[in-house]
Amino acid sequence: MSLDSDDTATNTSNVLNSSDRDPYNGGDAKLPTDPRLFKQFFHEDPIRIIRNFASILKGLPPKRQPRSLTTDEHIRLNHILKACAALDPITHSTEKFLQLKGLLSIVAGILPNTAWSFPEPEKSLAADTYDKFSAQNWGIPPSQQAPSLQATTNRSPLSSRNTLASRPRITIPSPNHPIYGSSGIMRGIVIARSPHQSYRLDPSYPRRSCKVFGHNDTSVGQWWPTQLCALRDGAHGHIQGGISGTEAAGAFSIVISGMYSDLDRDFGATVYYSGSDAHANTDPETPKISNATKTLRRNLDTGNAVRVLRSSQGGWAGRPSVGIRYDGLYAVVEEKVRKNCKGGAYVRFLLEREDGQERIEKWRPSSKERREFEKVVDGYH
User: Fold this and answer.
1) pLDDT tens for each residue of 262-314
2) I want to staple 158 with a disulfide (CB 3.0 to 4.6 A). Which of 26, 119, 170, 352 is the partner?
3) CA-to-CA distance for 115 and 262, rounded, in angstroms?
4) % the chain with pLDDT above 90
5) How do beta strands 324-339 and 306-311 pair?
């Protein structure tokens, strides 16, 4: 596919000078900002590199043992994702040229049945970038968007006769559907099939901004079947990432997902929450400080509380049995440096639940919600 000159990145230079020192090689990275230079810079198409890394982590082809990425591979992955994230605003031709949606989906774990796990903070970076470009509808101009994305469509496919066969087939559920309809637990979510099934936000459904401190019209005990649904309602800002916010403002919300279950401690009203990349570091003196960690650290200065959501994968006995639940506002009161099992330093925060809130509703999801949760995988026709 060719790329017009108007579709290159908006940067005046063809390289991106990364001002923050790279956490893996300790130096500054000059990354390409022109999509046409990516293959030359990385010596191969980025999508092929990412697929190869996925094969390494998963242990493909048959009989090959899974392994972690080497330091050089880790650096290469980090640079590819940083270069992709800098392509903002995204254009549709750039997305197609680099196959960005597929690339980011693989790393962020958005694709179904992914048995591999990319390292942090790259997984969070990919998820953040995916969310950002999804909000821009992947650069597709409104005039070229499928008519069936409009609210007036019914159950017909979200594609026209001229759509390429490889384009995902998306259908809109009936508004009366008990799970995916306007009153169902999966309202505002559509299913894409190409050929695997995945879930996406319906662009026609009103989406609440997550960039708000406080409850943001979310009730303590509110429950969702997936993190995507929490994003839909503005409770959290990422499909995959655990910390949502900005370095300047701080964190608006976090998800306790069990990713660092050996390092985190959850006692309900008190939570010890680890920063990103807590497992990987081997430096006993200097923890790796990711953008997400800087974001949560900012709350120590501002005093703003964060929304805490717990997933069924967490470690506390009061966690939801399935899905994800909002358990209230927590103050970030302390930051300490701890050691992981490799002897490497990592940052861990102490969060304390604020007084005057409704009690945590440990019984949620209800039996009705659990029954509805089991029907999510059935989809709709």
Assistant:
1) 889 999 999 999 987 788 788 899 888 888 899 999 999 999 999 999 999 88
2) 170
3) 21
4) 47
5) antiparallel
* Torsion over CA: 38, 44, 48, 54 (sign): negative
Pairing mode, if any, of strands 345-353 and 270-274?
antiparallel
CA distances from 287 to 261, 292, 305, 337, 350 (A): 18, 13, 24, 7, 17
> What does each C-alpha distance from 123 to 24, 166, 212, 275 come to in angstroms?
15, 26, 24, 14
Question: What would the two tokens of residue 244 be?
Answer: 């949502």
CA distance 85 to 297: 23
* Residue 168 token pair: 């995902």
**Letter string b/e over residues 275-294, b meaning 16 or more CB atoms within 10 A of that residue's CB:** bbbbbbbeeeeebbbbbbbb
Kindly report, residue by residue over 104-146, the tens digit of the pLDDT: 988 887 765 555 678 877 887 888 788 778 777 788 876 555 4
Reduced to 3 states (helix: H, G, I; strand: E, B; else coil), residue 275 is coil
Helices 46-58 and 71-85, packing angle to 10 deg:
140
Q: Do residues 113 and 79 make contact, with C-beta atoms less than 8 angstroms apart?
A: no
Element (H, E) at 256: strand 250-256
- At 217-274, the pLDDT tens digits run 999 999 999 999 999 999 999 887 789 999 899 999 999 988 777 889 999 999 999 9
DSSP bridge pairs for 352: 270, 331
Contact by Cβ (8 Å): 20, 27 = no
Sheet holding 189-193, edge to edge: 169-171, 189-193, 197-201
- CA-based nearest residue to 310, from 247, 353, 250, 373: 353
Whose structure tokens read 């701080």? 250
Residues 89/11, Cβ–Cβ less than 8 Å: no
Inform me whether the pLDDT recorded for 20 exceeds 50: no
Rounded Cα distance between 239 and 328, Å, is: 20
